[in-house]
Amino acid sequence: MRNKFWVWIFVLYLGTGVVHAQSLNEFVVDGLEKNDLAKNLPPLDTLIKMAKANSPRLKFFDADYEFWDGQITLARRAWLRNINLEAGYGYGIFDNLSNQQIAGDPGSQTLFSSEQSRYTVGASIKLPLSSVFNRNREIKNAKAEAKKSQHQKEYAEWELEQLIVKQYNDLLKAHRLFFINASIVESYKLQSIRAEKDFKNGVINLADYTRLQQMLNQAIRAYESQRAEFLIAFKALEGTVGIQIEMY
């Protein structure tokens, strides 16, 4: 009975004609060419540029580099923390020395008071040895951290490029398989219509007709599974790029 079933499948294909087999193959080939997703997606280089522009990870490294670049400037100017300038202002009644006292006359003890404003300005410098000897080391450390952040960004960019290329090709593969599975389902549907007529006319029995329906159901399940894979691959690429991908 199983051999009879496969013979019937072969006859069914012959019954539809060699032209049908060729047209189905041409349909798949032409359909893949006309529905090539790569023609509707932005170019790969454009996707990579968009991913880099929207990557939170790369933005983190940019901010980290900016921070350490600022630390270099701060380390170079750290010595300014040891210089103090002070200024003061006072207004009121002050006791002042007489001219004799200013001239150095020891016998004069007279003070006189007057209402006036007074300004004071002063400067001081202190140079701790740690600031002197550690300055160059602090500058070098800040430069090393800035350079490390820059290299980390370059490596992250390389990783991002590799991920985009993989997801891009996974999407194209998923789309092609999705289209092929859709074609297989359509082919089985045509066979099912023919088989239903042959079953009613007694050409095939119920077991063969049921088996073909099971094959159709399996093809539909494979189609739905591949459809889900295509959508997942598409959303994964959108997530990495960081924006909604517009089709051309």
Automatic annotation (TrEMBL):
UniProtKB keywords: Cell outer membrane, Coiled coil, Membrane, Transmembrane, Transmembrane beta strand, Transport
Location(s) in or outside the cell: Cell outer membrane
Gene Ontology CC: one annotated term: cell outer membrane
UniProt-listed Pfam families: OEP
The protein, known as: Transporter
Family membership: Belongs to the outer membrane factor (OMF) (TC 1.B.17) family.
Coiled coil regions, renumbered to chain: 134-161
Origin superkingdom: Bacteria
Source organism of this protein record: Aureicoccus marinus
Gene Ontology terms for molecular function: efflux transmembrane transporter activity; porin activity
SUPFAM superfamilies cross-referenced by the UniProt entry: Outer membrane efflux proteins (OEP) (SSF56954)
Record-linked InterPro entries: OMP_efflux, TolC-like
Gene3D superfamilies tied to this protein: Outer membrane efflux proteins (OEP)
